[in-house]
Design a protein that fits this description.
564 residues, GMP Synthetase, Chain A, domain 3, 17 helices
Length: 564
Amino acid sequence: MTDQFDPPRPWIRSYAETVPHDLPEMSGSLMDLVADSAREYPTAPALQFFGAVTSYASLAEQIDRAAATLRAEGVRKGDPVALVLPNCPQHIVAFYAILRLGAVVVEHNPLYTPRELRKQFADHGAKHAIVWSNVVGTIQEFPADLAVSTIISVDVTRAMPAYMRWALRLPVPKLRAQRAQLTTRVRGAIPWQQAVASDPLPQDVPGPETDDLAVIQYTSGTTGDPKGASLTHRNLLANATQARAWTPTVSRGEGTVVYAVLPMFHAYGLTLCLTYAMSQAARLVLFPKFDPDMVLQVTKKHPATVLPAVPPIAERLLARARERGVSLEGTQIGVSGAMALDHELVVPWEAETGGMLVEGYGLSECSPVLIVNPVADTRKPGTIGLPLPGTECRVVDPDDPTIDVAQGEPGELLVRGPQVFSGYYGRPEETERVFSDGWFRTGDIVEMDEDGYFAVVDRIKELIITGGFNVAPTEVEIALRQHPAIVDAAVVGLPSAAHGEEVVAAVVLEGSADDFDPAEARAFVKRVLTPYKAPRRFVVVEELPRSMIGKVLRRQVKEQLLAA
């Protein structure tokens, strides 16, 4: 076959025989994923949450009822609707109910601080929100210019089995504490159970089209300002289709199990759980947070066909399984992303599971998956793998993206494909900055070998990736400078076996280093930002290196800290 792409795609020579080189033209919308599965497998389990199971037929019905409620509250095609939810059945129903109306899902981390949530709501301007009960109070306290007119409150315990709901109401301190972590009483919001008690949406209400905006996915830039990646139905359909093509051994329908241990408000969890799993008519097992004991309990009866994870999750799960003597056998495909996968983890994982653990790579702007190692013996440890079907890649001079570097030489990765976004929501200048003649600039420095496998060797962006989450240094530095003892700060990511990178702050102090309390400073940042952004280590310095115009040179700070 002659490759019709320009430039050529040498990686397709390394594809497994059953993997297509390209994708069919996308049509329809994300709604087809659930509708097709509900039609073909109505009684099959779609969702499992603490043992409570929802069938595909029931899921489709709940989506229609929730969509009818949203429409009655004034949601129309193109309207942004905020989701502020942990992993729970209501999250999946709400996601597709919003899309059913042609409206736009805006995903949020429910553990964000009020300040962080306000910044994102100010950016997208949603007037309707479906919110975890524990966060409703935060949304209700927004200033008048950000006021949300409709709030639907979700009590996640309502999706648990009846015996668990009953147990959580017992007058036992430990159970009361667990219940308080999961839900709280709220006023002035529509209860979720009322939202799904509506009559179903009439079938003649038009749904979304392929090129309609589907999701605004927030990603941190180096400035720390929230930027929403605009992802269309075409983008997300393409990425789910690419994932299915990459896993041809995964059968569609009952018997296929996907674990949602990654948060679905994150692009990685969204695609592999909210879209890929639904397209496979799989049993999606939902975990509100990663708890190795909880995962092992499910593994005994329903081992994962596909387990999307980050290395720390795989490592903790493996260690706990060995500690408890629980077998991981039957876990077929572990997909690792967001940070480098150590081959020292792959070997014992595959010995324990009898399956495979492969590394991939992506960005929120790309729905998010771009490159994955083959789920076959041809995968190459230490690489991120091969571009997915229909994906084009170039390796270019980062100072002049019109010049391709020689094969094997490091350069910036540029990508093009059906999963690549159209731009940042409401930010045309930011969008223009990340595209070069139609190619998206990833900001990552890679090398490609003779077989088309890619390896990440550096990042142009100063973004820190810790435990799979992005941290913008500027955002943390702004928070640190509000501390009364800190005059100046530079935040960098340093290598960490447990987290990929850990957030480290070099700080210039007002007074003596003897009077500085790192634990108190860390707690201070946690009051402003979500906990994973708080520095794990502080290094006191006399001054920070700066450029001629006074800009802190983070790269020099990082080099100095590494040398020390």
